[in-house]
From TrEMBL:
It holds the Pfam family PAP2. Signal peptide: none annotated. This is Phosphatase PAP2 family protein. Residues 776-885 form the Phosphatidic acid phosphatase type 2/haloperoxidase domain. It comes from the Bacteria. InterPro entries: PAP2/HPO (IPR000326), PAP2/HPO_sf (IPR036938), YbjH (IPR010344).
Length: 913
């Protein structure tokens, strides 16, 4: 049974539990403070997934299996008098076999706070009252004894008679024993007639380093360099510059270029191993300081990726640089001599200017390496220009084919990357399948869309040795913060073609915009140069926006691989360890109606992913990552081609490092600076907004409108509703024969979803905005809550039938329909106007009312409401939002006004000093 406890921010756990007849492989993570999500892959004993007949197609799949997604949010924490309270929902997506909602309160007792009591109430699963108690003996903190009252009604479970779940009845008492040791944990419980068990491992994503970096190469020391030459000696002999390049190359720096301009030493380079930008530049500047000629007064170091300048560090006083490395001056004093900025095209030292480095020896022999970049073993070589060859083992797993729940492949992957000219790269990859059973999947795709992904088994049945990629990529920086890529060749195992990408980085480090266009042709199954008849053009514009807590939201819109058009939303959070956890959801017009979709509920592409930087788990720094994603692998809707070299991936991490705090990161690797925010950023936590809610409610209650205001407002509202009622019948007569039109269906979906989006945006302003936005978010959330209450009160009072019941405009709801489902007033309209009104008033943005109004029109177009229903709902939302804003707003120090016109948009900003 759930409690109100939520694991600490950054928690990630995985495990397996068995509670007859259910077995579950699960993953759980606290993706935001006080918000925990859990994904479960549940198997059900007693029923087959596809067929009960041995030997028939689908018999190898075994037990019935279902994917389940749960979420729990803590509303507020425990106080001296009050318990902590959380709400949760189980199985919120998909088949919803285990769907339920609950609210639970938890309080701890005892001097050691080692006794925990929980009481809650659930709907469906758990069903009704449930409770639990946990005792951790003070002398044995790793152990806990648990007693619970199980509130589940197992007789209602899916095919409960066949699975034996019905024999468990309506839950009842249970006792359990828990043990936790470090990252590992186990639980065993005794119910009335059976045992259950759970084992798990938990990984603290907030831990920055799981293993000590014992094998990290030391910082270059001045004593290891030859005596420094004079400026004249440096200019006269290229050997001095060559010595600096050699020293940098031994520290994994690549694409190194050095030039002396007067008394300024310029360097262009990147590092293939060090993960932090500031640390990479810091080590390079320390090495350059040891070799720089006497008389050099400043340095300019430009960090590049794929020959493109990303960030430039201007160090204006090399004496202060030396003092900082030696601990003579502190960070603040050193910062006065450093400028960290976006790189410009002319910052990079071109290849043609490298005469002084010609003929430098490059030791890049081919060899076996164990443990490098997280690979168990690899055969590889890499030279000073980032030309690299690598052969590594590759293991992959696929789930949920009717012929077997788990598919696998083991292969050898060979990659080759070579620089051909300035910004021009050749990239190739071949794969040799050693053993696999993906090709044994005999179920043919049931997709009605072009088979852009669902024929994966056919590609595995091709040659064991395949050419997966052969690309030419040309990268260019057009100007500061504008980058382009042009590509042609074999993109991936399924598609080839030509295309490009352009990316723009505003000075505001929160967002990035890019556009990718690719003309593609589907490759054949053999895996070489054969092809199929399918051709398409994909065009996707993307907006990447960084939120607090190191979260990034990405919206992609355009045409996808199956020629379906729509939007893909991605969310990810990066934790202190560098581990990224995220999810995506795609909504297109692909209309994927075959299973798991249906004509009434088409399938939309979705999934979760995790990216793991291996530096946290190795004894030396590395830029290598491992990762996985969970998503259906036999669907075609909302799919994208593998990018030949995504520009956003190229700049995301360096830009984050450059724009975080002072941009220096772990620059000098000094022990006395490891607690600086720029070196180890503090973990931000959500403040408790509940006291602010209470203060706002009391403030509003003390400033309620007087009788004249109530009378005037009620009269205006009644007049508007009565006038709109005249349109009820004419509007429905017009819409009834058009309810199946695509435009009307889309408008109906917009009306259904947009109010929830607007309420979510208000919540995001409360969680992530500045003080002004947070205050407005509080008002908006109060408005939404109050408006929902008033709207549902009106539904129960009036009980008006909806248009799709085919009854009269003011008849009561029919038999079998709840008054909560009544039409008057519209709850969606009330929520939409309640959410936008405080923001429209605070920021002088009347166009927000247009968004809410369009959502209301969508409810009428979908024949879920009469015109007067949405007018009444809008009046409620507007009145409540306006009243709360007028009584709770603060006098702003600035205002922003955005007013769109027919052919223009006016933007005005005013600041009060």
């Amino acid at each position: 049974m759930p409690s109100a406890s939520v694991e600490y921010d950054g928690y990630f756990g995985m495990g397996y539990s068995y509670d007859s007849p259910y077995g579950a492989l699960w993953l759980s993570s606290t993706i935001l403070p006080n918000l925990q999500v859990t994904g479960r892959f549940v198997s059900i004993s007693g029923i087959r997934g596809f067929t009960d007949v041995p030997g028939e197609f689908g018999s190898g799949y075994g037990r019935y299996k279902d994917k389940v997604f749960d979420v729990k949010a803590k509303l507020w924490g425990e106080t001296a008098l009050l318990p902590s309270v959380a709400i949760g929902a189980t199985d919120v997506l998909g088949t919803q076999l285990f769907k339920g909602q609950y609210v639970v309160a938890t309080k701890t007792f005892g001097a050691a706070k080692n006794v925990e009591l929980s009481v809650g109430y659930g709907n469906k699963r758990p069903d009704g009252l449930f409770a639990g108690a946990r005792w951790r003996p003070a002398g044995m903190p790793n152990w806990a004894v648990v007693a619970e009252y199980d509130g589940n009604d197992y007789t209602r479970d899916y095919r409960a008679l066949a699975t034996g779940a019905a024999e468990r009845g309506k839950g009842g008492p249970a006792v359990g024993l828990e043990y936790r040791w470090g990252w590992l944990g186990a639980q065993v419980a005794r119910h009335r007639d059976h045992f259950s068990a759970n084992m798990y491992v938990s990984v603290p994503l907030g831990t920055r380093q799981f293993l000590p970096q014992l094998t990290e190469p030391p910082v270059f020391k001045r004593k290891d360099a030859a005596p420094r030459p004079t400026l004249a000696q440096w200019e006269a002999s290229p050997a001095h510059g060559a010595a600096l390049v050699q020293a940098l190359a031994k520290q994994n720096y690549k694409n190194i270029r050095v030039a002396l301009e007067g008394t300024t030493l310029n360097l262009t380079l990147n590092n293939s191993r060090i993960s932090n930008l500031g640390r990479a530049v810091g080590r390079a500047s320390g090495t350059a300081l040891a070799f720089a000629p006497v008389g050099v007064q400043s340095m300019r170091i430009t960090y590049t990726k794929l020959d493109q300048p990303i960030a430039t560090y201007e160090i204006r006083d090399t004496g202060k640089l030396a003092d900082y490395f030696n601990g003579i001056i502190g960070r603040e004093a050193f910062l006065q001599t450093v400028v960290v900025r976006y790189a410009r095209p002319d910052d990079r030292i071109a290849d043609g200017e490298q005469g002084l480095l010609a003929g430098i020896k490059d030791d890049n022999g081919l060899g076996f390496h164990a443990g490098r970049d997280g690979n168990i073993v690899q055969l590889s070589s890499e030279d000073r220009e980032s030309n690299r060859f690598k052969i590594v083992p590759k293991i992959g797993f696929l789930f949920n084919d009717p012929g077997g729940a788990l598919r696998y492949e083991v292969a050898a992957l060979g990659t080759y990357d070579r620089k051909l000219a300035d910004g021009l790269f050749l990239s190739g990859a071949v794969k040799l399948n050693l053993i696999e059973d993906i090709s044994d999947a005999t179920q043919t795709s049931n997709s009605l869309l072009p088979h852009v992904r669902s024929d994966i088994a056919e590609y595995r049945r091709g040659n064991k040795f395949q050419l997966n990629r052969l690309m030419l990529n040309k990268y260019t920086q057009l100007s500061e913060r504008v980058y382009t890529r042009v590509s042609a060749g074999l993109y991936e195992e399924m598609f080839r073609g030509a295309g490009g990408q352009i990316m723009y980085l505003p000075r505001d480090s929160r967002w990035v915009a890019d556009l990718s266009v690719d003309a593609l042709e589907q490759r054949g199954y053999k895996g070489w140069f054969d092809k199929r008849d399918y051709r398409t053009v994909t065009a996707l514009g993307a907006l990447h926006y960084r939120l607090p807590y190191d979260m990034t939201v990405t919206a992609r819109a355009g045409q996808f691989l199956a020629k379906d058009r729509g939007v893909r939303l991605e969310f990810k959070r990066r934790f202190a360890s560098g581990i990224e956890l995220g999810a995506w959801y795609t909504k297109t017009n692909g209309n994927d109606i075959t299973s798991p979709g249906s004509p009434s509920d088409p399938y939309n592409d979705k999934g979760i992913f995790m990216s793991i930087p291996l530096r946290a788990m190795l004894t030396a720094d590395t830029q290598a990552n491992a990762g996985f994603y969970l998503a259906p692998w036999t669907r075609d809707v909302g799919q994208m081609v593998a990018s030949p070299g995504d520009l956003y991936d190229m700049i995301e991490n360096p830009r984050r490092d450059m724009t975080s705090y002072d941009g220096l990161g772990n620059f000098a690797e000094r022990a006395d600076e490891q607690n600086l925010a720029a070196v180890n950023p503090p973990v931000r936590t959500f403040g408790n907004v509940w006291p602010r809610f209470n203060a706002r409610i009391e403030q509003s209650a003390g400033a309620s409108p007087g009788v004249p205001d109530w009378a005037r407002g009620t009269g205006l509202a009644a007049g508007a509703i009565l006038a709109s009622a005249l349109l009820d019948k004419p509007a429905d007569r017009y819409l009834k024969p058009r309810q199946d039109d695509g435009a009307m269906r889309n408008l109906g979906k917009f009306g259904k979803n947009m109010p929830m989006v607007l309420a979510g945006a208000a919540g995001a302003a409360l969680a992530f905005g500045d003080e002004r936005a947070q205050n407005t978010g509080i008002i908006a959330m109060q408005s939404v809550a109050a408006s929902v209450g008033l709207a549902y009160g009106g539904k129960y009072l009036v009980g008006r039938a909806r248009p799709d019941e085919e009854r009269g405009p003011w008849e009561r709801v029919g038999d079998g329909r709840s008054r909560a489902h009544a039409a008057f007033p519209s709850g969606h309209s009330a929520v939409a106007f309640a959410a936008v009104t405080p923001f429209a008033m605070e920021y002088d943005a009347p166009w927000l009312y247009g968004v809410a109004a369009l959502a209301s029109v969508g409810r009428v177009a979908d024949r879920q409401h009469w015109v007067s229903d949405v007018v009444a709902g809008g009046v409620i939302g507007y009145a409540v939002g306006g009243w709360l804003w007028n009584n709770q707003r603060k006098t702003p120090g600035s205002s922003l006004s955005i007013v769109p016109g027919l052919k223009s948009v006016s933007v005005a900003y005013q600041k009060t000093y």
